[in-house]
Amino acid sequence: MRIPPAAITWLHVWPDIAIFAATYLGLALGGVPKTRLDRSAIALLGAIAVLLFRRLPFHDAMRQISFPTLALLISLMVISAQLRLAGFYQWVVLRIVEVARRPRSLLCGVIAVSAGLSALFANDVICLIFTPVLCVALKRAGRDPVPYLMALVTSSNIGSAATLIGNPQNMLISQTAHLSFFAYSATVIPLVLLVLVIDGLLIWWVYHRRILNVATVPGKAQPTHEKINPQWGVIRKTLFIMTLLLLAMLLGDVLHLPIVISAMTAAGLVMISRKTRPSDLFSLVSWNLILLFVGLFIVVGDIQSRELLAPVIHHMAKMGVHLAAFIPLSAVTLVLSNIVNNVPAVLLLKPAIPHAAVLSWYVLAVISTFAGNLTMLGSIANLLVSEQAKTQDVQLGYIEYLKVGVPVTLLSTALTIAYFTCISHF
Fold first, then answer.
1. Is the pLDDT of residue 418 over 80?
2. Which of 89, 124, 87, 76 shows the shortest CA–CA distance to 268?
3. Number of structural domains found in the chain
4. Which of 56, 149, 252, 295 could join 61 via S-S bond, C-beta 3.0 to 4.6 A?
5. How far apart are the C-alpha atoms of 264 and 64, rounded to whole Å?
6. Is residue 218 pLDDT above 70, yes or no?
7. What angle do CA 346, 58, 287 make, to 5 degrees?
């Protein structure tokens, strides 16, 4: 009996589909029941399965890894680690609370600073450092930390969309589509500023009574684990290097200098220090995130090498759903980012976008970032804020988060679609 060609194809590729499905199911669940596996370990196990079952030769699997993206991510983490060890982030948040006496000014200060720093450094780092210090300072001042924590996490996610180095998925998109740092930021910054204003207004509308109520807040403020003693010499040097890095990235098209080389050079200069050991900087690099990238590169690369997503994309196009179009791309990105997280979503969607469709790449970068605000599980930064707040007896629960997360995400998504639709007509 003759076996149909479709059946032969299925028999050949079913292991790839099984590995891919199991990996993404694990990412969606965030772990495996009765084990302590996290998303990074699940992605690595998927990559190991690809190699073990010989779905890709080892050398081909290594070619799927975007080493420039990893180098860029590690370089920026090293620079951020130096500022963290020097006490810069802690000093900033304490100054915000000390200077901003009025509730409105304090709220605006938290939003502006967290968004601005997240555009230059990982929003995860900003949330991790700011949360405990902010909780302690606000409770000592008799203020309710919850509204300001909501401002911190949502504005960090929004602000990180302003540049191609603001978060891991933007770095990945930058390296994949070879986008201009200056052109991207010049295009999206007006949108980001508008969404930040909406974010602030929403938080004020939801929490204005709690913000204006200055009284003793229940719960005992615990001291932060890190001693705040700014090393101004180290801070000035690092900020100077970061300024040079930003100039190099902005002038990258003129200087013909890739972003990744500029970032690696800046990280190398930061490591040359009389006060900080490189090993201390490396210990603060999020190696879990790096390993997550490595695993996903191989798992998704296996699927792409066999063109298993092409029939799905073609079928959607026949139904009139083109993922390069703004509305379908935004909808799919929003949903997928909240199922499997934004980095896996970007890896999965990037084959559907033509290389020359610059505005579609911009939409993917912005929406995958804004999508992190939808639920508590939408972004690692959200979970970091919730967990760090617990150590200071402050509860930021799942339902509480939705009060701001859902409306700000839906409004920012609609604005993004309208914004890029208008731009595309000019």
1. yes
2. 76
3. 1
4. 56
5. 21
6. no
7. 50
